[in-house]
Protein 1
Amino acid sequence: MQFKDIVGQRDVINRLTEIIDSGRVSHAQLILGPAEDGSLQLALAYLQYLCCTNRQHHDGGDLRADSCGTCPSCKKISQLIHPDLHLFFPNATTSRVKSNPSSADFQQEFHDFVLERNARGTLDDWFASLGIENKQGILNVRDAADVIRSLALKSYEGGWKMVVVWMAEKMNEQAANELLKTLEEPTPGTVILLVVESDERLLQTIRSRVQTVRLAPTGSSREAALAEQFAPLLVGWLRLLFKLRMKELAAHVDLLASLGREQLKLFLQYALGVMRGCFLSTAAGMPYSIGSGDAKFDAMFPAMITANNVEPVEQALSEAVFAIERNANPKITLMELSFRMSKALKKK
């Protein structure tokens, strides 16, 4: 992966190449941004440039430097076969791995996934490729132990020892605590890149030990895709909350629950974003449209989210996301959420 293959992010990339060229490489870094915006691409391109033996510097254009793409190190990293590059990612039991899973069990599948999708696949894409859409994939203590073990080994090629932890926010607390000392006192010649879409669920002790690289937002396509996927479901659900027709509501809850846990979390997070957008429209006059295709509903609903109910609405949705993450029954969670949302919306 070369920097030139990444759409946008030129200011971020130029800053990173300057830092590497100056020799001021931070041993533990957090790359923060959506997968669709190229967060994993940036991590891999960064490591390829770091190890490149023939870096290319440009006098003009918007990209100040890039890896050569042709030296042995570049070729190995681009194919994910460099012996000093170690990849870790969320995982769960499958039909093949029935107990105690870890990233080590799925290395070939993950390599294929990254290469086929040019390192822009989402967490949902990854879970779908493993056939675990309805499970909560995590990075567990076995993964953390493998990170530590990988960094304790001597570098095969005499250069950097590199670890990429993709979707590091999926680390459970035990795994995160295991990594703390390694992040604080890494062995010499080590680079650890934590690639995350959101750092809110990382332990504060983790965040305090890493240097954050924040991608420039380019997520309009992601927002449009989420709206296309979820807006009709959201509007249908919200309409039912006003009249609480129980038979129809129960059927819609069944439909939402059938999405699977990860998709249901995305739906709830999308709904939370819509509620915040509606409140900003009501309270601050900021232009906002749900974009559901139902012009009447899009024009009417934002005014329903006011200072009187925005807090209970956000709390109800956030607690539902938390419950789904903790493997709560989706139908029970959604029905309880529906009653709470119905009550809050009537406080307009």
Note: The chain has two domains: 3-214, 220-345.
Protein 2
Amino acid sequence: MSDTQPEPTLEQRKVIYRARRGLKELDYYFDPYVRTHYLQAEASEQQVFAELVKEEDPDLLDWFLHNHPTKPEFAELIAKLKRLQSAH
């Protein structure tokens, strides 16, 4: 974490840990978001991300890679993670 980011709370640390999937296809989207956006995000977005990383890997792969319809509460955040990655 860079010096410009706030120190993560215990709950934020748990979410960051949970975001490490070990699947390169998911880490491709999660890692940049966690490194550069998660700690500065609004509390509501952090909560949605916390719920997103609780989902099963096959569902996440479908949503990110195969553009299957996602749960409505995740649609906006998944779109954001895809936009962030396409900007790199």
Note: The two ends are 19 Å apart (CA to CA).
Protein 3
Amino acid sequence: MKITAITVRTIRQSSEAWYAPDPIPAGVVGHFDFPLVTLETDEGIEGHTMEYCPLGQGRGSAAQFIDVFSVDLLGKNPLHHEAIWQTLRMKQRHLYNITPTLWSTLDVALWDIKGKAANMPIALLLGQYRDRVPAYATCPPQTVPTVERLAEVVADKKRQGYSGVKLQLSGGSALDIPRLRKAREVVGDGFPLMLDSSAVLTFEDALKIGRVLDELEYEWFEEPMPDAYVLQLRKLAQDVRTPILAGETVALLELAQYLSDGTIDIARADAHHKCGITGMIKALGMCEMMGFELEIHTAATPLLDMANLHLACATRLSRFVESHHDMFRFGLKGDPLRVHEDGCQHLPDGPGLGVEIDWDWMENHTVDVMRTEA
């Protein structure tokens, strides 16, 4: 089997859905662009994947798939994903202005092809551990401007049947601690709550918040400071009981250092940030051998989050999958990323990613198409 062509469609969504019920703020891009990549083969099997581009970088990323990476894919056997992965890993050494997330995205399409060729879901190819994973809802900061609004949102997520709720709050201790207390009051004791501070806190503020999280029994304290602040993260992990979950922006090859030196308590990773499904297999193996949990992060595109669901169903290390804004569940028939009555996302049983793309919807939201052939 050989890859014969690559097509990249730029799928556009208005930013209105992200900021609703408020209007789109001034000074931000008014749309999210999602490059939808299709790898074609000489055996008629296609692999699909999709990149995340909310800040105006969609067309640039689409062009990079064609201009930078097509030479590494065209004419190659997609089933040799490890060989392709190693080639792209070595190439990354000199891709100074491109992060590994682009070729991480391409790796997902290779696994989609592999699953279809084997007529198996990707999770089954990986040695399936389970067929469903508890899902928690992430509440974007745009939806919680006040304590009262936060109470409404958290209560609504619990009513919808989610297995937990994560707050994204980055206003600092004075603003956020009342919200953290209100969320616990709303859901009651024992219901899983998490906090993601999006890497904006000082150590002093993080320590104040961490001690409140200890009192309120939150599941984890996510990215309180930038991943690069290794010393402060290590000190915080020693000073609070609530597990520090970080490493989202850490390169795959750097993750072992964060685990071995006590910088974090729980690893954060996904198919987008950790070099695709192939890279996540390596990250999961590393964490299991070192005794760490690895919580799988959302990738905020429907196809990458399907890849994350397959990974979560192939490991015991991740307690949850993350379910973000509804705007990221587009273009797939049957809404396969929905949360079921048992509070879980369920693994589809189709081959590869196991989804059916709604091509009419995709074509109606396509603003550009690039294509190259072998």
Note: Residues 101-118 form the longest helix (18 residues).
Protein 4
Amino acid sequence: MKQTNGKVLIYTGGAHFLLGISPFAFGKQFLKFANKMFFKINEGLFEFPLLNGQMNYENFAAFWFVYFGLLLIPIGFLVDYIEKTTENVPHNFIWSYLIIVLIGVYMIPFSGMTFLMLPHAIYMLFQRNRLRAENKKLKRI
């Protein structure tokens, strides 16, 4: 069975990062971050509305969009390594991934979480279950 789950995560993370820094998405905010040498891109707790602060939602979204892409890349390499060595992804990881994706789908329904990552998480779950069933069959023989 061809293992591609890690590569899907790597490519998704890379696309997220590249789209995030492009002028079509958050390029303007990313240039502001770069001008500050990525140090102190917001005012932290002073922006918190409970402390009478005013959040800059565009900077907040830009940061998390790019940061999430960067986080997916090493996770993808880890999943790819696990798939190559053990030929399956641990059940706990798949369920954790699915829960995180479902939270993302709930929070931002019209996004890549819904159209790309949710089908991928469900596919990983079915793939894992199919692999377990095949292994049980082989053990019986």
Note: The chain has five helices and no strands.
